[in-house]
Every structure is written in C-alpha cells, then in structure tokens.
Amino acid sequence: MSDLYWLTDEQMDRLRPYFPKSHGKPRVDDRRVLSGIVFVNRNGLRWRDAPKEYGPHKTLYNRWKRWGDMGVFLRMMEGLAAEGAEPATIMIDATYLKAHRTASSLRVKKGNLGRLIGRTKGGMNTKLHAVTDANGRPLSFFMTAGQISDYTGATALLDDLPKAKWLLGDRGYDADWFREALQAKGIKPCIPGRKSRLQPVKYDKRRYRRRNRIEIMFGRLKDWRRVATRYDRCPRVFFSAIALAATVIFWL
Q1: Which pLDDT tens digit goes with each residue over 225-248?
Q2: Domain assignment present for 246
C-alpha cells in the first residue's frame, strides 16, 4: 500500500529519548510498530485491520496498551512541547469529542472515576480542554465529561500553565477568580467580558484575533478518526490517542 505511514529516521531520533528501557528480550522494530500505531489511530481502524506491513496486529495493540498505561505517549508530547514551544502568549479553549456507543456502553465498576463521558444537546460527548502556545501548538490537555463547564478545565490546567505574558480565551473563561489567578502568575488575560457584565471589560482586540489558532488546532486533531469519534471506553487509552495525534501533527 502506497498510503502507509512511516516515521522518518529523524522523527525516531526525536522520540527515542522518551521510550521506556527494554528489559530482557529486545523489542520488536520500534519504527515499524510505532508507525503502525499511528496509522491505526489516524484512520480509526480496528487493530486486527492494521496492514500486514506493520507486523502482527497483536504486537501493535500490546505496545499501544503497555506504553499507554505507562504514560509514554503523553511524555512524548509534553517533552517535545517543552523543547520547541513559544509560550510568551498562550491560549486556552475546549471542544467536544463525540463518543461512539461502544465507548459509553456497559456500567462503570464501583470505585472507578468513570469514563468521562456526559450527555449534552449533541448527544454523548467527552470534553477536551487545551492550552496551546502562540502558534496554536498544544502544551497540555485535560479531559472531562461533556457537560462539565469550561471553568473546571481552566481550574485543572491553571497550575501547569507555563510562564507567559498573555493568555487568550473566549467569553467562557470570563470570571473574576480566573483573571485574578492569572494576574497572580504574572499573566495578562486577554478575555472579552460576558454580555451579562454590568461593567464592560477592556481587552486587546487585535491580539485576540490570534485565538483562532487554537480552534484550528482542534480541527486538525479531529482529522484523526480515533480522536474525532471516541471508541475507547477507557479514558486513559483515549487520552493516549489525543497525545499521540498532537505529537505527530504539531511537534515532529
């Protein structure tokens, strides 16, 4: 197949520092297996439908599951982002990711935090909260059920915000406590005020126009079928797919 995806030698060199050490038996060809994992996630395939050029589908799935449980794919994204980000201006936003019925079926076991899937006007969804750099490249993510407000995501992402001069956000983030928390970190908020405010809020309209870059980022993430539609019941597995997509699209 001419449309197969293969990681280049240069890309593998950048990813290799984040690979876990192999113990005992050497791992199967990392380039072949990782390229197969990318292909399956990008095209939304079942693992058994992976092209034979990538080797046994069980090998792909086992590597995907094991490295996902270890947080390897998230470390790849965060590590590469830390090397190449331009965080003088950062942006925050959230988007809905539609959950397939296979992701939301069956009851959740007691003691489990849940699948992070909620019912909204658009059906069953997961909400992805993101912080990007000035170019719209993702720095960090946080995932909640679809009905959770933007405030919750902002609270979770607040502690991990990089040092920045400005933060761009839409009206969903217009809250006095959020503005004060940003200013305490030395970050100037560029957030328009809600229409319900009695006193209008001044903001840099010219700078705010750049916020469309985070919306473009979400659009590009959703080009990956396994991200645009959530098939995975386990939130950790789905989060790994998002981190892998962000790494390949924006940081390699």
Answers
A1: 999 999 888 889 999 999 999 999
A2: no
Entry pTM: 0.90
Q: Is the pLDDT of residue 113 over 60?
A: no
Residue range(s) defining the domain that contains residue 148: 85-231
Inside any domain, residue 125: yes
CB under 8 Å to 123, separation ≥6 — which residues?
A: 98, 99
Number of domains in the chain: 2
CB 128 within 8 A of CB 97: yes
Instruction: Name residue, tokens 């050497």.
Output: 26
In a domain, 1, yes or no: no
**Does residue 132 lie within any of the structural domains?**
yes
